[in-house]
Amino acid sequence: MSAPPAYTAEPPGDLAARRDRVLSASYRLFYSDPVHLVRGEGVWLYDADNRRYLDAYNNVPSVGHGNPRVVEAMTQQARRLNAHTRYLSDELVAYAERLLSFFDPSLDRVILTCTGSEANDLAYRMARVFTGGTGAIVTANAYHGVTGEIAAISPSLSLDIASSARAVPAPDPRLGDEAGAQFARDVRAAAEDLIASGHRPAMLLLDTVLSSDGIRPDPIGMFTPAVEAIRELGGLYVADEVQAGFGRLGAGMWGFDRHGLVPDLVTLGKPMGNGYPLAGIVTRAEIASIFGRRDRYFNTFGGTSVAAAVGSAVLDEIVENGLIASADAVGRQLRTRLRDLAARHPMVGEVRGAGLFVGVDIVDGNGALDRQRAAAVVDGLRESGVLISAAGPEGATLKIRPPLVFGTEHAELLLDHLGPVLTALEHGCDADSGHR
């Protein structure tokens, strides 16, 4: 066999073009003018020209880019040992005990994975085994992951969802106290339709901040009637905390806490390892035991000693630095100031959020959601040195979801940049008769 050809690095040039030549077309880049990042620190990201950007979007590094405690825990444990869960591990057991201390005592078992997609996929398997059902109910624009089965019940990825799934409208905050009752009626109707088609419901899977549905954390208690309904019909309530969890919403550690609920299964991911691939499930011993007797689950990299050390360091940072209370205080300030901006800028519609998870609707002259204007705001902020994104069924809701170390001074800086971007776009729209 002939030797493989020697690799010769291409000379510096158009990195985007080189990327296109070697990566799948399924990859996407943020912003019309992509950012070439080379390092990060706290809430800051730096590009190849050493320009600094305020990161108001990335919740994966929840306790800050390059967090020293997390990096130290990772490197020290990697030097010492990195073994999987089929060996006894002080680090793994200590981490599981610590993690469970943040949950209701009835939720007393942990299974660790690498990604939130894997966690949601496994939760679906567990729900099917425990209930004997096969059906899943999700919200109309839900995103729960990229594995085959979970992508097939994530309407934001495809309108053609699995025959064993039903998508229902997310609770509408404009309905106030009626939002929960209407949502429960929709869930019951979906469950009855599943039963009629031969799919007894196994789970109601809800992202607790309804991020892909446009960021809808309120009204408080809106999930409760639907959770009662699914349990009456033999299904389980699965709380997807992959985006909302670990103090993000500023009211306890988890999104379901705000609604006074105790789920049957909780799925975790993204901020759990501050960028290290760490995710998992928390559930009741009864569910874990029945699943364990029927099915096997092992993940080579899920729950290694390094993952456990990193997870513990993230918890230390959240607790010792009061990041949940900070998310609440900074988020309140940010939403108040955003509503002040809305009063002065007709492009800004409703402002919604909890803690450091905020959605801002961008609208046209008739008050309808406007994807193009939202994209223009996102690009305008990028040019100004602030990174955010957009979400929702129309792609017209600004998604502000910074690391938890985002402080009041960072919120003010974001607002200082957002105002001029809105003004410039509104003047441009006026000059173009509202069609820019």
Notes on the protein architecture:
InterPro entries: Aminotrans_3 (IPR005814), Aminotrans_3_PPA_site (IPR049704), PyrdxlP-dep_Trfase (IPR015424), PyrdxlP-dep_Trfase_major (IPR015421), PyrdxlP-dep_Trfase_small (IPR015422). This is Aspartate aminotransferase family protein. It holds the Pfam family Aminotran_3. 39% of the residues lie in helices and 16% in strands. The chain has 2 domains: 15-65 and 322-431, Aspartate Aminotransferase, domain 1 (Alpha-Beta Complex), CATH 3.90.1150; 68-320, Aspartate Aminotransferase, domain 2. The protein is built from 13 helices and 15 strands. By secondary structure, it is α/β, with parallel strands linked by helices. The chain is globular, with a radius of gyration of 22 Å. The termini are far apart. The strands form 3 sheets. The chain has a 7-stranded mixed beta sheet, with helices on both faces. Strands 1-2-3-13 form a 4-stranded mixed beta sheet. The protein has a 4-stranded antiparallel beta sheet with strand order 11-12-15-14. Strand 1 and strand 2 (44-47) form a beta hairpin. Helix 2 (68-80) packs antiparallel against helix 10 and helix 3 (90-100) runs parallel beside helix 10.
